[in-house]
Specification:
alpha/beta, 7-stranded parallel sheet, 6-stranded parallel sheet
Length: about 475
């Protein structure tokens, strides 16, 4: 079978949980051919992969959201849109449920739209914004509305304009732009479509937009509704939606995904990979580790504040932040400045490393994200028998405390998002109680060993691919 995985902002450009998940899926299923439809942020990422591509990954289709910068365009062209086409575009911009994705795809794939930037510089686009301004945004400066909507729909139009490789089955790894491409693939080829949602994409974008300085208050709702609109496209079009834990399923149903479509397949790790880790030397130092990318959604700044309080009380603690620092260089510099300004001495940013070389040496693991799915970082730490302090986001609580019918016991502490004092208090409890660390570490290990096996995760997707896509081998 030939399977097209559609990934946004992850594989193969970024290390981390979702990218590792994709890589595992491909490498474990040598019986299938895979294509990656990779949606990246900037053209400068082109060809710069963080992974060695497996031999059964036969193509990487690269699309970048800043490609419009390189298009030639002229102002003022008239596209002679029909009233139905105009109304559908207005529905897209305003987030109306009347949006017909099939007709939108047909329009944007037609010869009328040879150049995305040119349409957004056309009289037709000006007329659409003029209608919106009069109908819904009469008190908003017209120029701001014009450029805000342009920046909002430009990357969507750009991705839709690209050709999609033909495959037996399409599998989007998030909603958003990846979800729309999956919906377009099904519309174009009438092939099965799957969605796996690790975190809730539309909720994550909503959190970012609420906090963002680059979106003015009266446009925040417009942006938020836009991302919910993108997500709804694949909820409707998909044959099956896979999520990783119960709470995500509940949210998807709240957002309009039919419950009968949703199936839970948890992440998994190979326990044997963590059985012979090198322990730390017996030097009376307590080592805290965090397997994490240095990006705002992981809230490294709260982690730093928490450790600052711990360091003030204990002189024998160290924090190792294990993960790439190059994804958001501005944020990384802000974190370094925060460490320096706070006078914190014992934080090490390792950059990208083999985490197994560090895990055995850690006493406590830490995760302070403001949004998560079901973090592989937690599964790796639990497989190494390490207790955790984590924020109450995504599937973290289920991993640490257990879900319905789980009797394995507590594997750490759950703290409120951004509450650095609460996080620090839990870290201190673990630092001061070796027996508690060992008990919680053992509880987490038993939970992962029995409920989050890598073999079960792979078998779940193998069966799903065969049931939805059929067993036929791809023939060109």
């Amino acid at each position: 079978m030939r399977i097209c995985l559609i990934a946004e902002g992850s594989y193969p450009y970024v290390n981390g949980g979702v990218s590792s998940w994709i890589h595992s899926l491909i490498t474990e299923m040598q019986e299938h051919e895979f294509i990656i439809y990779a949606i990246g942020a900037e053209m400068k990422q082109k060809g710069k992969y963080k992974y060695t591509l497996p031999p059964n990954l036969i193509e990487v289709k690269e699309v970048f959201l800043d490609e419009y910068v390189y298009e030639d365009k002229k102002w003022g062209k008239s596209y002679k849109l029909s009233m139905e086409e105009k109304n559908n575009l207005v529905s897209l911009i305003s987030g109306s449920k009347d949006l017909n994705w099939g007709k939108l795809f047909d329009l944007l794939s037609s010869k009328k739209f040879e150049n995305v930037g040119q349409f957004l510089s056309s009289k037709d686009y000006f007329d659409l914004i003029e209608f919106l301004a009069e109908d819904q945004y009469s008190r908003v400066p017209f120029t701001e509305l014009f450029w805000t909507v342009r920046s909002m729909i430009l990357p969507l139009f750009l991705t839709i304009r690209h050709d999609i490789p033909e495959a037996d089955l399409y599998h989007a790894v998030s909603t958003g732009y990846a979800g729309v491409i999956g919906t377009l693939a099904k519309h174009t080829y009438q092939k099965p479509l799957l969605l796996t949602e690790h975190g809730i994409y539309s909720r994550e974008r909503e959190e970012e937009i609420i906090k963002a300085d680059w979106v003015k208050g009266y446009f925040k709702d417009l942006w938020i509704n836009h991302f919910y609109t993108l997500s709804n496209s694949i909820y409707e079009a998909s044959d099956q939606v896979i999520t990783l834990f119960d709470r995500n399923k509940e949210i998807e149903v709240e957002l309009g995904c039919p419950e009968e479509k949703i199936r839970i397949i948890p992440n998994g790790v190979e326990i044997s990979n963590y059985s012979n880790l090198q322990p730390a030397v017996n030097d009376n130092v307590l080592r805290i580790g965090a397997i994490v990318r240095l990006v705002p959604i992981k809230d490294i700044k709260t982690m730093i504040q928490s450790f600052g309080l711990v360091e003030k009380e204990l002189s024998n603690v160290e924090l190792f932040i294990l993960g790439p620092t190059d994804e958001d260089e501005i944020y990384y510099k802000e974190c370094l400045q925060m460490v320096s300004a706070s006078g914190i001495k014992r934080i090490t940013f390792t950059g990208m490393v083999d985490v197994k070389e560090y895990l055995g040496k850690m006493d406590i693991m830490l995760l302070t994200s403001i949004s998560e799915g079901q973090p592989l970082a937690i599964l790796e730490g639990l497989a190494s028998k390490k207790p955790f302090v984590v924020t109450n986001v995504g599937g973290c609580k289920e991993l640490i405390v257990g879900g319905r019918g789980d009797t394995y016991g507590q594997a750490g502490f759950i703290a409120s998002v951004m509450n650095y004092e609460e996080i620090a208090s839990y870290i201190l409890q673990l630092c001061k109680n070796k027996r508690l660390r060992e008990t919680m570490g053992a509880n987490g290990f038993n939970r992962v060993q029995n409920k989050y096996k890598r073999s079960s995760f792979i078998a779940g997707y193998r069966d799903l691919y065969l049931s939805v896509g059929g067993s036929a081998t791809w023939q060109a």
